[in-house]
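To the wet lab folks,

You asked to see what we're planning to order before we commit. Fair enough. Below is the target structure as tokens, and below that is the sequence we designed to fit it. If anything looks off to you, flag it before the synthesis order goes out.
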């Protein structure tokens, strides 16, 4: 299995994870095998380069390529594209009979993203705007704690949305509902005293009944999707351990 990522220094790299049978412990193991930088002066994250990096990594550690039985990754075009334009097509060309497994969680996520385009952006904007308003100001966070304590709510920080951390999305919506009354009071006070455009946007979104209705829908549907991700991770695990 391979995937790409970018570290805190903005360096892109590819991680190779392997699943194998360990004869000493007599169990199957899943381990990070190698990590490689993707970008050089004349090469980037092309399908050909990704494939070559992966194969060179196996050769470096004297891994018999005849032992490769499966390849898995997300569904991006460089890894799962058609014909000879992807890693998977090259794997099938050089290793006939190899199993190609696309991450179904990524596929479901793409379907959900497409479905969410029919929803107004106000819910996503509200979650992001609330988090950004508090994230870089300890003063605002401490002021908000006073409103939480006044309403006898749990003193929790607001959470942040992410395009890749799918399992965190339900908790973002749940946290907004948990702190809804405190948020209403806090931003009403801020709007009356400061009149900042960022505060005004959040204040009016919180007081829009349609925004709350859409958030209720998301609170209901998101756990169903994330539980599906978890079940599929377990299902995929069972396939490989059968």
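Sequence we intend to order:
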């Amino acid at each position: 299995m391979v995937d790409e990522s970018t570290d805190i220094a903005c360096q892109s790299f590819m991680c190779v994870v392997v699943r194998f049978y360990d004869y000493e412990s007599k169990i199957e193991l899943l381990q990070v095998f190698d990590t490689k930088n993707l970008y050089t002066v004349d090469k980037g994250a092309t399908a050909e380069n990704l494939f070559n990096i992966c194969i060179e990594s196996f050769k470096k550690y004297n891994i018999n390529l005849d032992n490769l039985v499966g390849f898995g990754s997300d569904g991006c075009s460089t890894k799962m594209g058609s014909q000879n334009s992807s890693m998977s097509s090259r794997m099938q060309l050089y290793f006939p009979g190899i199993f190609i497994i696309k991450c179904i969680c990524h596929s479901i996520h793409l379907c959900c993203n497409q479905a969410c385009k029919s929803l107004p952006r106000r819910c996503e904007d509200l979650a992001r705007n609330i988090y950004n308003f508090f994230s870089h100001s300890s003063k605002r966070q401490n002021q908000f704690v006073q409103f939480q304590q006044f309403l006898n709510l749990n003193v929790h920080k607001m959470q942040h949305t992410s395009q890749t951390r799918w399992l965190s999305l339900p908790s973002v919506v749940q946290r907004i509902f948990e702190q809804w009354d405190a948020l209403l009071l806090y931003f009403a006070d801020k709007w009356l005293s400061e009149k900042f455009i960022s505060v005004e946007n959040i204040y009016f979104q919180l007081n829009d009944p349609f925004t709350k209705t859409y958030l209720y829908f998301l609170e209901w549907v998101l756990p169903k999707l994330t539980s599906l991700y978890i079940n599929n991770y377990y299902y995929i695990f069972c396939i490989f351990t059968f």
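Structural context that might help your review: Residues 133 and 198 are 8 Å apart (CA to CA). The mean pLDDT is 83.

Thanks,
Computational group
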